[in-house]
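On clarity, I found the account of how folds are encoded harder to follow than it need be. What matters is that the chain and its backbone geometry are given together, residue for residue. I therefore recommend that a typical entry be quoted early in the introduction. An entry of this sort, consisting of the sequence and the corresponding backbone structure tokens, reads as follows:
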Amino acid sequence: MISMINEDIGRLSRLGFSSLPECLLTVPKSFRDYHDPIEVLPLPNTGESHYLALTLTERSTYTRQGKVSDELKGSFRAVLRAADARGERVQINVIGKPAIERWMHPELGTVVNLYGELTTFDGRLSISNPTLVAAEDVGRVVPIYQGRTNQVSAELLTESIGKALPYINEAACLLLEQTLMHEGDFARFTGISDPATLLRTLHAPLSVREGLEAIEVAKTLSVKALVNKVFANRSKPAVKGSLLRIDREQVADLIHRAPFEPTDDQLRAIDEIVADLRSPFPMERILSGDVGTGKSFTFMVPAAASHLAGARVAIIAPSQILVDQLASELSALFFEIAVKKYTSKAKVDISSGIIVGTTAVLSAAKKEGIVFDLVIADEQHKFSVSQRKKLLAPHTNFLEATATAIPRTVALVKLGGMPISILSQAPVERKITSRIITVKAREKLNDFVMDIINRGGQAAFIYPVVNGDANASCHSVEAAYERFRRVLGDSVGMIHGGLSEELKTNTIRLMKENGIKLLVASTVIEVGVTFPNLRVAVAVNAENFGVSQLHQLRGRLARKGGEGYFIMYLTKPIQQPASDRLRLLSTCSDGFRLAEMDAEARGFGNLDIDGDRQSGSARMLFWGITLGRPEIEQGAIDAGLIPAKQ
């Protein structure tokens, strides 16, 4: 029994639950009133389902080969006939062995209670796949729950909630813990005496109206929980050693070294970051800069200033390619500062200088007992929350730089819980055109790419898989590379994560030197890599990429200014959710707005201060509650966290 419960919890964790009692923090999607069944058939084809009491008169089951008389073995369809109180007959069609098995138990001539939609077919009344109401559900209001497609069935969630009801007191305590509320505060806010009463009403209401009212309370409570968590996130104490004695005149000198005119956004962001670093409260700030708005320079100035003030500084990047690029740019800007690259195979002293590395810095710092005073994570969506925390001591200042904020961050930002510096202006003028193209336009696409190359530009084709074995329906990097090489020869380059660092570094160098005209790549190039002459990027089988990936890939274009073309190429028809995602990319080029819209579509993540979840499967408070951005924002406005819109 215990092993079965543990197995269920393992699956329920996909909904954000960590224990059986916690699954009581679920809101039903609807309720069914099984108090008074209808004994006379209602009008058909109304689109409504009804609770009916009918007398079962006939039953036959069918295999795929033919009719089987009243037997379950080998059957895939059952046809039953029933009559209402007036004797009017209706045909009941049941598909699937589990459903058929349930309908084999009632004896002919007995009254059965069922829930379904009455329709007509060939002039006959029929009901397809109705719910056979269990005897224990007759005479009560039954909640209907929603699982997660292909992950957690509604049946498993329903069964687990039934098992959890004896532990309702423990679930009530979990509800208070997750809302950060005292029981008295809960009673005053909801008008309900205690959390256990709310949970009982959700899962065993006396009427449908009572259940629906409980759902509304759960919604308002979910917003209140978010607000409370933000207040907790903002109420951090001063920590000794957090303040960095940065010289503002030195900051101004570092800014003047830029090879371009910094934007007003960059100057304001640098000032906000420096102000945080010069305070006794550990910084936890987001630097949200759309691709091409100069995030790297914006965080490099405070990094250099902190180092010159005696602080230990680490910049963490998601790949060696980006580590090489950041270290090179940092050294070129601030020649007097020692910049050290650290990757998994490096043998580098990380006790001095500015350390630029991959997450390999995590284990190296722990091994050598080094604690950083400032940690900058470039492209935060590439790191887990637990990875980032390994680099942070209580006094450590932390800056997250991102071109597309993750949903957890978006939610915190919208509620005012985490300070944010936004870069929306680009130091250079760029015009990027985004288009969705199907296989029918393949020849026109190839002609367009060749025209760009013949005019001196570079092109990149990006594939979701490296070789065809991973997904037979997708084109792959290696197959495409061979195909392009037969046409363009040595002017074609290839890069993906499976290549050696030496090969990847050489390919990056050739691209920057214009030695490669067409690059065939995986998403290894999506983050931060600068190819000054790249004019067109084609994401092949674009439906297999996420919003963040596509936006980042688009950001590789025209990095030094001018025009660029981002093509989302579809080789086959795609499903609606993917189609909506691509249309979103084609109409919106603002990274932060994309993050907001993506968060609305996917759901906000866990907002706990110590939460590890970033999106999707995490509950905000109740599983089954859907909160839109307007509701969250209004809750934040009511709490005084953010100003009302004018």
Summary: Residues 219 and 374 are 39 Å apart (CA to CA).
